Amino acid sequence: MFGKLKNEAILTFDIVTQSPLYIREGTDNSLDPSAVDGKYMTTYKDGKLEPFIPGTSLKGAFRSRAERVLRNNGACDIINRHECIPNNKLKPRTGQERYKKSCPICRLFGSNVIKSRVSFSDAYVFNEYKVGQRTCVAIDRITGSAKGSALYSFEYIEDAVFKEKIALQNFEPYQIKLLLYLIEEMNEGFLTLGGLTSKGFGCVKAENLELKIKQYGKDDLSSKNYEFKDYYNAKNVKGFDEISKLVSYVDFTKLKRDGDIDEQTI
Ligand SMILES: [Zn+2]
């Protein structure tokens, strides 16, 4: 539990593919002789099977990139079991203390002792995308070498545009800055999605960024361009550069485990 709700933010953007995208469907079509070996992930939308990017895939890609970027700021390494707060008897008792003692990555993405403050929606396609098909030599998962002359055929998607929504609760300003930084890395091709990235797959760009913020309480925030609505203040900021200005003061090198909680209103 977060306790009191202080603020909320919603960051929306379009994910536009820049190269083929292959997020593999988990189901096995081996009983259907006409089926390809691998297919992009789909879900039913308006009664039709459409491609989508699972929110968990996006969150995973963002988290692992963030861990690399903030490695020198006390970020823990959950994959290699170096958690910043082990889930044992010695962990701090209150959620607030556990949050404060956590590294900047766990504070945002959550850990085994604190709940995540960010959620990534499943991103649904909303344009006329293309479906491509390729065949390559099958690679043995264990040895990493070619499986004799076995061929692997798969379907991927191209020229697709997806809509994504990232929601935050009780956020700190650095968390908005970190998400923007990761979006920039995505635009530059350092943060990729799905499989076959070594073949150039999975490059995407974020467009049409918009940030909606709500600050709860009756403070007068009109000097920060908020509009007062009964029991909260709200504002909308459009475009990467304008959103970046709100958090330009944040210095990543000052972030650390057990650091102060930044309660500044952006
Ligand atoms: Zn951590």
Automatic annotation (TrEMBL):
One Pfam family recorded for the sequence: RAMPs
Coiled-coil regions listed in the entry: none
Classification via InterPro entries: CRISPR-assoc_RAMP_Csx7 (IPR013411), CRISPR_Csm3_endoribonuclease (IPR052216), RAMP_III_fam (IPR005537)
UniProt entry keywords in alphabetical sequence: Antiviral defense
Name the UniProt record assigns to this protein: CRISPR type III-associated protein domain-containing protein
GO biological process assignments: defense response to virus
The organism of origin for this protein: Clostridium diolis
The CRISPR type III-associated protein domain, residue ranges: 15-205
